[in-house]
Amino acid sequence: MIYDVFALQNHNKGLLVPDIQIVSRENHANKHWLRSSNYLFAAKDTICPLIVQELPKAAMHLPIAFVPNKEEFTLVALLGLDQGQNLLLSAQGLWQGSYLPMQYRSYPFLLANSGGNEQILCIDAASGLITEKPEGEAFFNEDGTPASTVASIFAFMQKVASGRQITAHVCSLLQKHNLIQPWDIKVQKESGVQTIAGLYRIDEDAFNGLSGEALTDLRNGGALPAIFCQLLSMQHLPVLARLLESHIKAESAAAPKELDLEFLNDDGNISFSNF
Length: 275
Hints:
The protein has one domain. Helices cover about 30% and strands about 20% of the residues. It is built from seven helices and 15 strands. It is flat and about 60 Å long.
């Protein structure tokens, strides 16, 4: 079986259809919001966007790849081995990994741009995390100013948005020097070989053959850490295979409660090649 990860970028992002509202005094002055107790909203995310600022930590725990976005590329973490599959989540929606991507830290809030490129804080009303009861956290203070927590979330999301611009520049530099190549991953399962297409990786041979001038260009553009982090992160592909085995084991148990993260031996029925 072959599937293309690029097709997953517009995949339904969660179990609910989002209902995006602009956070405003008119809509939310007398309401509160609740922190999500799980990450079920990301249950169908096979990939998750990353920014370069988080690569050093993400590379220590997750396989990182590039995916095409029109004529450009963007950085992502690979979270699953099949469409609509996030192996980093338990059945209860608990995050099982050691690193949580920035993309997921501000839910249920989102950031949008107005027609004048002004950044606007929004919230997913379909999340079930907005309440009129006196619980959770207020959107606004009594004087009408944003509550400190909401202001902090907005500032965080603005930093992430700025990081996406830097990440786009880094990816354009890598593309300029022809350092991004296809990365088709073959997974050997009991049912046969599955090929995951649509992912890209650093061409290590091309990188080693760069001129001094090209290396200087990459260094000055802040692209070298992205190169090393992506190559380093590829060692985590087998972790996804072991997570898949843990999911299968949990689903087959009579009364599963959580994933068995004491991974099975490396000589199991799932293996990778060509990475």
